[in-house]
Write a structure and sequence with these properties.
With 225 residues, this protein is an alpha/beta fold. Helix content is 26%, strand content 28%. An eight-stranded mixed beta sheet has the order 5-4-1-6-9-10-11-12, sandwiched between helices. It has a two-stranded antiparallel ribbon with strand order 2-3. Helix 1 packs across helix 5. The two termini are 34 Å apart. Bound molecules: cytidine-5'-triphosphate and calcium ion (CA). The site of cytidine-5'-triphosphate (CTP) has 15 residues, from helix 3 and strand 9. This is Coenzyme A biosynthesis bifunctional protein CoaBC. In the C-terminal section; belongs to the PPC synthetase family. In the N-terminal section; belongs to the HFCD (homo-oligomeric flavin containing Cys decarboxylase) superfamily.
Amino acid sequence: VEHFFRSEDLKGKKAIVTAGPTYEAIDPVRFIGNHSSGKMGFAIAEELYLRGADVILITGPTSQQVAYKGIQVKHVVSADEMYDAAVHAFDGAAIAVMSAAVADYKPVQAAVEKIKKKQEAWSIDMVKNKDILLQLGQQKKAGQFLMGFALETHNEKENALAKLKTKNADAIVLNSLNDKDAGFGVDTNTVTIFHQSGNETKVSLKPKKEVASDIVSFIIKHLHV
Ligand code: CTP
Ligand code: CA
């Protein structure tokens, strides 16, 4: 028996979260991926659940395990699979948080057989993946709160604000990579949340679980009712 307290802040509300990396197949044994641990996305999904939401977590390959059985987990591998799952789940969702580190490009075509080593140099033709956040921003209806993430190494604020606008998000969480205790793989994070109203909320360095709690409190505060 699990013992935990769920508040009623988000009772009856559907929330979807994307998390983790995506893997883009090169051939049956190789892929292009990234170092996303999924920790931030899982923590946000768990926090949304504890605040009473019906949560669907769409995750790429990670070693994370969800803490509560009540969270519906959909496992995907590629960006295309994550796109289909997210677009499908967005219907009727009050909240969508896109925290996945989606691969920007995929090989034009995955080879059916394992590619053999031949010439000294080798390159792979790649095409852009569909942008899930951009798509949800386009299909968003009144009453749906859409949050994205941004990972920047320079012109952080400017780039985060550009993503907020282009992708029609309600808020963007900027991950600061300039702090060695923040970001990929580690248990702590420091972020700034930019809201479409122009307000800016800074969350100082703390455990990812606490950052998730602050992010969900921010969402609840800015939910259009
Ligand atoms: N995102 C997405 N689908 C993609 C690429 C990104 O849903 N194919 C989402 C991410 O989950 C994140 C936001 O878009 O919430 C920003 O991702 P990021 O990689 O920072 O920005 P990009 O738009 O991909 O631009 P760039 O990588 O060039 O900075
Ligand atoms: Ca990207």
